[in-house]
Give the backbone structure.
Amino acid sequence: MNRVPLKSIVAGLAASVVLTSSAMAGGFNRGSANLDGLFSDSLGVYSGVTYVAPGRSYSSVSGVRVVGGVAGAFAQGAVEFGDSFVVPYASFGGEIVDNAACVGSYAQPYGADSTYSGAITYHIAAQSLATQELGLTCSYRYDLGKGRLSFIGGVFNERIEYDQARNFTLAFGTVGDSKINVTSDAWGYRLGMAYEIPEIALKASLMYRSQTDHKATGMYTNTPFATLATAANAVAPGTYSGAELAAYGANTTATATTSASLPQSVELSVQSGIAPGWLAFGSVKWTDWSVLGRIDLVEGINGRQFSTSRFFFKDGWTVTGGVAHRFNDQLAASASVTWDRGVSSGWDTLTDQWTLAGGVAYDVNEKVQLRAGGAAIHFAGGRKSQTSSAVDYTATSPSEWGYALSASAAIRF
């Protein structure tokens, strides 16, 4: 069988795989913990950053909003809402005793950033989900004679911050802003196993990341509760009682609470040398996005559900395939294609995505590797067709392109 040196090829491979896995893949997926140190015989530092410019937009929006207590139809044209974002990662670790390795890692596994303009801001002006993961993962390796088998396990703490904003045109032309900020911490774990034959650059791994269950708390701010409740009564009489309106009074702030779960996932990754200087790789990942149905936010004055974000996602599937080639002792490159099945069930336009990525790696010396990559991301067109009430909106997203850039480095001691 062809023998392919592992060092340079995997460096080029990593540039492409890290990029494609973080470029808005499947639902709100962004990045994953870098665990390269588990497969190294020495300690090392691994870090990188990916910049993504999705350029996602609506080509048209139409619906109903309430202005001055009166419901009225609206329609608007193109609205770009997909904000650019940056995804960093860092990890440190490697073999600490014979056959045992540990890695401490920082990652941002999930995220969403969107800002809207025009009449749609009555329904949504901005929305953001930010996550940060700190993890510790270890492995124990068994020599099987022909290859080696590793068992992997670890824990992580996941912190989330969720922000939402809406703009309201109230009675007498007054503009009111509704802003929500909630945060939460939750613990999770990962389990996996891997089989390697380093001489031929063969590695197959199966990794599971657990679901995390969050109970988030925070604040509503700059929210005219009584005025908004009165407007709701104008559309649906009896929604709020007189006692509840009185309790709201002139309050413009209140505590906010909600519960939400972020998904479990399973990923199978395989790579192997296929010819002198060549390596093929691929992966399949399932993400349980159906666990994220809706986020109901409850205000702390009357204990009423005052805001709801509806997702009702389908499960996500991400499939990647590619090749890497070592040109010489220092330079390697990779190319890959990734398909993400859309998770939308009609409450948004998170449709199918195709990502074409390329990366290069340069070994400065035996201990330092530099990597860079780029990708083109194609989003299929889609339609937000579901509405929660008579006062809601529908929208259409066109077929369009975004892009991503990445840079990373690995230093071994």
Q: What stands out?
A: The first strand starts at residue 44 and ends at 53. The chain has three helices and 25 strands.
